[in-house]
Amino acid sequence: MRKRATAKQVAEAAGVSKWTVIRAFTPGASITEESKRRVLESAARLNYTPNLLARSLATKSTGQIAVFVDDFANPQKLPFLETLTEQLQAVGRVAMLININNHFDHVHALLHADQRQVDAIILFGTAFRDETLTDRQLGNGTPPMFVLARDSQIDGVPAVVCDAELALRDIVDHLYSRGYRRPGFMSGAPALSTALRRREYFSKFWSEKGITHVEQLSAQKYSLQAGALGIRNYLSDTSGKERIDVLMCENDILALGAMDEMRGRFDLRIPEDIAVVGFDNYELGGSSAYSLTTYEQPLREMVSIIIRMIKGEVDPETVTLPGELVVRSST
Fold it and tell me: For the ranges 37-51, 165-179, 248-262, which has the lowest average pLDDT?
């Protein structure tokens, strides 16, 4: 490999000190326009770029943000990750994506992230165990942690999340106004240290309308196949007259899988036989094949706030934001 040009070589070519070269590549540093011009011209000739890892030793900041994800089967993760990486890069940070699942120990993953000298950790999944996140091995030097798009149940770890109470009130009000009276709720992956609370609020608001029983369906994870299996098990075990008349799914991916199964295997009409509503406003759900009623999270604003917390521009505290009900023909 060809050796990289060094700051010392650029300094000699530009006739300045090594520290002047460093200041030329440091935003906001004190340096004359003439000195900066000479440094940048010499750097271009030598194809020099600053070593960010070496600079981090002095600044105590690497610009790297670890993002922990476990449920990669959920395609709704992609819009969030796209927005997150886009906004991080816009402020000079980069994301380090770390796969957290049953094959990887959470404590070791956190230690690995810390050894990489990341500036912060974003928890973006379902199975972050409180007892391991607070393990004594981590000590006080662990980077600050934040939860994105779920409620945090970990002391000292703030979250930025869509307001589930407001969202489910809007959804239940809409369904009730359309005449549905036999609701069901399909939940996804069980959460350990982060939660959605959508099932809790769904049952609460139906109860306020005098309907105390909400049929509970479980999909175990967030995927099309899991949604299909969840509704298949329910419909196979429940006769037509006893079935729910509306199914709320914890996210759109479960809803799409359930809709395919209801139409393909059971020849049911949507919404005439069973109405369906999801959550997230996943792009495919808006197609004419599904026309899924859903709830859209304020994705860009949520990501923006968590980045401002990481940068220290706002206090690190849990923030809930309102979203928007999107009504389509599935209800």
Answer: 37-51
